[in-house]
Amino acid sequence: MAEFIHEHSTGVKSEDGTTYIVRVYGQERSDGTWEGWLEFHPTDKRKSVLRTEQETSQPIRTAMEYWASGLEPI
Question: Which of 13, 27, 34, 60 has the most CB within a 10 Å radius?
Fold first, then answer.
């Protein structure tokens, strides 16, 4: 089951002008490690949520939280 890890305070804007709130989600694997991905939630609720493939693998949830807090808008 996916778990909410972190929400970034800075939104991102797409080429079409849609603003997205960036959230990090993670899921514990059967071996106890964690995989994480990004979800882009549009402020315009008529638009779809966008999700990346797996962006990271971390040994424990606290490492996932640390990774998520260090992401910067580029």
Answer: 34
